[in-house]
Amino acid sequence: MSAPNRPPSHHAAKRPLIGITPDLSTPASSPFPVYELKVPYADAVLKAGGLPMILPYTEDPTVVESYLERVSGLLVTGGAFDIPPEAYGEAPRDGLGALKPTRTTFEVALMQGALKRNIPMLGVCGGMQLLNVVLGGSLYQDIQREVAEAREHEQKHDRTQPQHPVEVKEGTLLGELVGRGQLMVNSTHHQAVRRLGEQLVASAVSPDGVVEAIESPAHLFALGVQWHPEYMVNTVPVHLGIYKTFIQRARESRR
């Protein structure tokens, strides 16, 4: 006798669909490029109550629109590459790393569309930098060369452990999520926000003055963090609060 069909549980039915941007590489052992996503991104979305969906790259604007019609939130991830300086009106300088123009072009289109639709969006590491650029800001192309007395922002030890503190500002969205004052974060970047984009405020700063989080009060949820909270949800659990509120806003805003 077959089991009766059961309706989905209330919790499962409420999981909002979260689009996640993957990285792309071409392994030496394969003739085909490979999409890649670090497991902690998807795990954090699941743990916070969302349903993760990887978004393959496309140059077709109708596909981008189709993605945005379906997702309730957008997570723009980081990676071992830099944003082309031309995107913020500058020429390349010493210290600029590898570029992935195809990925950046895709993520710009997604981010612009999400901001226009007011879809909740979280930018992590490179995703934060892209949010700043999309809204008209610029970047330090290499912190060690361009920021006086800069700390080490590319930690060599376990990324589930913090590298340095940041000061979370009172009266910000980030402050609501993790509390204001000092927060310990990991650090895996060599670029950073230089000039803030329009509508953005800096909601966390490291002791050397590097902007570590940005947000747009003009949008329902548009937050960028320079660290990787998904790596620390078990070691520094307060970081899961970033994902929980992101997922909650996605749930409330769309489906």
Keywords:
single chain; 255 residues; alpha/beta; Rossmann fold; nine-stranded mixed beta sheet; two-stranded antiparallel ribbon; 13 strands
Give an account of the 3D structure:
The protein is of the alpha/beta class and 255 residues long. It has a single domain, classed as Rossmann fold. It is 29% helix and 20% strand. The strands form three sheets. A nine-stranded mixed β-sheet has the order 4-1-5-6-13-12-11-8-9, sandwiched between helices. A two-stranded antiparallel sheet has the order 2-3. The chain has a two-stranded antiparallel sheet with strand order 7-10.
Short overview:
With 255 residues, this protein is of the alpha/beta class. It has 8 helices and 13 strands. Strands 4-1-5-6-13-12-11-8-9 form a 9-stranded mixed sheet, sandwiched between helices. A two-stranded antiparallel ribbon has the order 2-3.
Q: What is the chain-wise order of helices and strands?
A: HEEEHEHEHEHEHEHEEEEEH
Q: Which overall shape is indicated by the principal axes computed on the Cα atoms?
A: globular
- Summing up helix and strand content along with how strands pair, one would put the structural category as alpha/beta
Level-1 CATH class name? Alpha Beta
**Assigned CATH superfamily:** Class I glutamine amidotransferase (GATase) domain
What fraction, in percent, of the residue positions are helical?
A: 25-40%
What's the number of helices?
8
Mean pLDDT: 93
Our count of domains comes out at: 1
Radius of gyration, taken over Cα atoms and rounded to an integer in Å? 18 Å
